[in-house]
Amino acid sequence: MTRYIVQRLAMLIPVLIGISVVTFSMLRLIPGDPATVMLGEHATIEQIEDFRERMGLNDPIYIQYLRYLQSVMRGDLGRSSLTQEWVIVELGQRLPATLELTLGAMFIACTVGILAGVIAAYYHNSFFDLATMVGALIGVSMPVFWLGLILMYIFGFKLKLLPPSARMTVGVELQTLNEAYHLDQILSGPWGTPVIAFTDFLSQFYLLASILTGDWKALLDVLKHLVLPSVALGSISVAIIARMTRSSLLEVLGEDYVRTARAKGLRERAVLTKHAMKNAFLPIITVIGLQFGGLLAGAILTETIFSWPGMGRLVVNRILARDYPSVQGSVLAIALVFVFVNLMVDISYAYLDPRIHYE
Amino acid sequence: MPVTTAETAAGGFRFRTGKPTSLWRDAWRRLLRNKLAIVGMVVLGIFLVMAVAADNYLLLLPRTLFKVELAEDATGPLAFLRAWGELTAKQATPLLAPYNPYKQELVRRREAPSREYLLGLDETGRDMLSRIIHGSRASLQVGVGSVSFAIVIGALMGAVAGFLGRWVDNLIMRLMDIMLAFPAMLLAIAIVSILGPGLMNMLYAIAIVSVPIYARIVRASVLSVREQDYILAARCIGVPPLRMLFRNVLPNCLTPLIVQGTLGIATAILNAAGLSFLGLGARPPKAEWGAMLGRGRGSIFTAPHIVIFPGITIMLMVLGFNLLGDGLRDSLDPRLRID
Fold first, then answer.
1. Nearest CA in chain A to B171
2. Best mutation site among A146, A301, A345 for testing chain B: the one with the most B CBs within 10 Å?
3. Are the beta carbons of A333 and A311 closer than 8 angstroms?
């Protein structure tokens, strides 16, 4: 087990280097001179020369790369050329929104997907089974952003049941953890500042913050805003998980030990949960793990539709604004989250399936 | 074809006699027995007709290709070509699509579906139905184009990696790992942001992003095929490596590629629609479904038909490829070949 984790971590090194090379070359691959691109068409030759010198663009490429690597390690991703804000600060504000949305979608995908899959498998060849499978086929074929728009139209506009966009209603205020518990007074001293910075980061997870500060009104508001984007984003995963659950459970239900369990008079409920589900679960978990990455990418489109202030929307807006430092930073951040999630999935899978331990 | 069953006296084995059938023929027959796959093929067939006959542009092609002045008394195929040339006008005119997809009726913009405009007018007063019919061109072009591109490059890389092994294999596959470390959509967005928006750039971006999938598939099949006896036999009689790769190894890796390729077109179309929706794909006047959704999404509360129809169309085309891909998998997978 430990050996597997170490090996898996070692495999990470070339991937991380590769990611840094890709994000580093992004700026250099844009047709034209990066200095002209960043300063705009109207910059004078002196300005451009000065900029090149300051940014080290006149140095050999490998020196530039090493310098880039060095600053990334320090957490310095440069400043946005659009807002002049540090890119890392902007990402810190946006990452929680994306993660919250992804987790919301994952929650819906797992509950609805597994439930539908189990019922479909248990009542094999019933009407529900057929409906689930047709629904799953349509689900994987539907553009996420289109479903989002339709949901917004029906539930947000026609029925007025749920808010159609943003994370909170304007006017609803959510205290940060710092404000609610006066952390700055309790935590003084040299280590106080990073802790407060961390709690400020946590406060960007609105669900967590509203629970921790006991603000139930805000919690309800946040939850309401989370529903539509999560359903839209999770739709494809619901379909995939339902399909997998159904086929995996169907296979297990045909096994001899299920027949034995039934023959010895166990209640159906126990047969299903204790005998069948336990064995059907591994492939389902693999699929769920694979979905995480897809959701992260799908969030880019979902956030644009629902005006969700996350990283995906940041990337798209900044590409259109030609704000390359921000684009570079967000691509790096999303790739790192993606790699980290995949790592967690692999490790938990090895933990869950004792048969895995490696070449 | 008659199949007779014979029983040998010695072992009591049952075996079939009769004409041998090829893998492709068997697969085709199994595919035709699959109702869902038929539905998929019909849907795709309709889209193909829409793409070819939206206007007479493609029908004009032969004339523009063979810029020959044909004599009045031409005979045979030349006469046919000449007749065709006269039949098709000088400029593209609507054929299947009822109107010109770029003509704007500004006064009637966002008009709901009516008998005159079956699917209504879009936010600048262009006929939605014509634009949707024309849009099938862009989607098929990007879907099929990017996947073919990705398959050629991916198959080559995978084949070289699997066939040569050692450090070449390591180098290529680590490169693929790095590409897979990015979510596909994000990498595609990054590539388009470097190349600049546009239909072709989007095609390249989606192609590059999907290369690792095909490289992995081909490498895996090459590794298993390489161990087969007939490859050993080929090596023994001294077939040169490159020839062996193309004549003996690659053809035997085709089936997983075909299945994955068909399903891959579905994903490519969805990704393309997403990129265009974000404004990173097809440029404005172009009739493309994702771009139609993106430009029209501001009108969703006032004129929902502008958003509803392109979305349904995307879904139908993707569904078609998914159904066909699933059907192909069932009919080509040798493990299921027991009848």
1. A14
2. A146
3. yes
| Phi and psi, residue B55, nearest 5° | -135, -175
CA distance B132 to B113: 14
B183 within 8 A of A293, measured Cβ to Cβ: yes
Distances (CA, A) of A263 to A39, A270, A271, A275: 77, 13, 10, 13
Rama region for A165: left / alpha / beta (φ>0; ψ in -120 to 50; rest): beta
CB neighbourhood size of A256 (10 A): 8
**Contact between residue A18 and residue B178 where contact means Cβ atoms under 8 Å apart:** yes
B308 touches A: beta carbon within 8 Å? yes
Residues of chain B in contact with residue A334, where contact means CB-CB under 8 angstroms, are 182-183, 186
Q: Is B181 in contact with A304 (Cβ distance < 8 A)?
A: no
- Given a contact cutoff of 8 angstroms between Cβ atoms, the answer to whether B336 and B330 are in contact is yes
Question: What SS3 state is found at A258?
Answer: helix
Three-state secondary structure call for residue A206? helix
Distance CA A134, CA A130 (A): 6
Q: Contacts from B65-73 at CB under 8 Å and sequence distance 24+?
A: none
- Alpha-carbon Rg for chain B, nearest whole angstrom, is 25
CA-to-CA dists, residue A303 to A203, A300, A309, B12, B278, angstroms: 20, 6, 7, 66, 11
Closest by CA position to B32, among listed B331, B337, B334: B331
SS3 A323: coil
Q: From the CB of residue B189, how many other CB atoms can be counted at a distance below 10 Å?
A: 29
Bridge partners of B17? B4
CA distance A30 to A57: 14
**pLDDT per position in chain B (339 positions), as tens?**
444 444 444 445 555 566 667 777 888 888 888 888 899 999 999 999 888 887 776 666 665 555 555 555 666 666 666 666 665 545 567 777 777 778 777 787 777 788 877 777 888 878 888 889 888 888 999 999 999 999 999 998 988 888 887 888 888 888 888 888 788 888 888 888 888 888 889 999 999 999 999 998 888 888 888 878 888 888 888 888 788 888 878 887 788 888 889 999 999 999 999 999 988 888 888 888 988 888 888 888 888 888 899 999 999 999 999 999 888 888 887 555 443
pTM of the model: 0.84
